[in-house]
Specification:
The protein is built from 4 helices and 3 strands; from the N terminus they run αβαβααβ. By secondary structure, it is an alpha+beta fold. It has 2 domains: 66 residues, no CATH class; 60 residues, no CATH class.
């Protein structure tokens, strides 16, 4: 039997699409199968995401461009040069501020799965 920490690293599926924690997949197997019946289960390593996984430098450039366009729409040529002084380091800092803010306010509640292999679980053994 694996330790609880090792089980936390893995998620399990009967159809290779919907993945669940170990206890949940065992419950599904025991609820739907005859005791002693061996069931093929997909086991994958859980890959947790962070907000930084979903923001790219191009997104920061897009944000800056939209702000420049909005300034131009409101102030026309008087806004010329707005935000042009931002360096690449400034943009990286802005990206970090955004992801740090999101990390402090909102949790990423989904995960990916990789390193998938097939294992066998016997119904009723857990």
């Amino acid at each position: 039997m694996s330790t609880e920490n090792e089980l936390d690293d893995f998620v399990y599926s009967l159809n290779e699409e919907n993945y669940y924690e170990y206890e949940d997949i065992v419950d599904q197997i025991n609820d739907g199968c005859i005791h002693g019946h061996e069931i093929k289960v997909y086991r994958g390593r859980r890959k947790d995401y962070k907000h930084e996984d979903f923001i790219a430098p191009i997104d920061i450039d897009f944000l800056i461009e939209r702000m420049q366009e909005s300034a131009y729409d409101n102030m026309s040529e008087f806004s010329e040069g707005y935000l042009d002084d931002l360096t690449e380091d400034n943009k990286k800092e802005l990206m970090k501020l955004i992801t740090d803010f999101l990390d402090s306010k909102v949790m990423v509640r989904f995960y990916g799965v990789d390193q998938i292999d097939e294992i066998t679980i016997t119904a009723g053994d857990e």
